[in-house]
Amino acid sequence: MGELSRWSLKVSRDTDIALRTLLASRGGRKGDLSRFVEEAVNREILRETIHEVRARNKDLGPAQIESLVDEALSEMAPGFWAGRRV
After folding, report:
1. pLDDT of residue 51
2. CA Rg value for the chain
3. CA–CA distance from 8 to each of 12, 34, 37 (Å)?
4. What whole-number distance in Å separates Cα of residue 21 and Cα of residue 13?
5. Separation in Å, CA 24 to CA 19, 20, 41, 68
């Protein structure tokens, strides 16, 4: 997880009970609540990023998008494979 930050959150009692019940049904252990919150935040950030990218590229056709993806991949590929054994 890297360096940790401490958050102080307030949620409704119903939400607290529902989440703790869910985590307990999965065999919850110490740290599961923090992990759940972090994963939920990361999913929401990913959803928002996808929404922004789609909005930004709504006027591009499939061929243009594929060309941009191919260009980005060709720029990254040499650095990605450098120093790796195949």
Report:
1. 97
2. 20
3. 14, 11, 12
4. 12
5. 8, 6, 21, 45
Task: Using DSSP, state whether 53 is helix, strand or coil.
Answer: helix
Distance of CA 56 to the CA centre of its chain: 19
**Rounded Cα–Cα distance for residues 38 and 27 (Å):** 18
Average pLDDT for runs of 10 along the chain of length 86: 89 97 94 95 98 94 93 86 69
Q: Which residues contact 26 (CB under 8 A, 6 or more apart)?
A: 32
Q: At what angle do helices 13-25 and 32-56 cross, to 10 degrees?
A: 110
Q: Which residue in the block uniquely carries the two structure tokens 């994963």?
A: 39
| Cα separations in angstroms, 73 against 18, 62, 64, 79 | 43, 16, 14, 10
pLDDT of amino acid 1: 65
Two structure tokens written together for 14: 């119903």
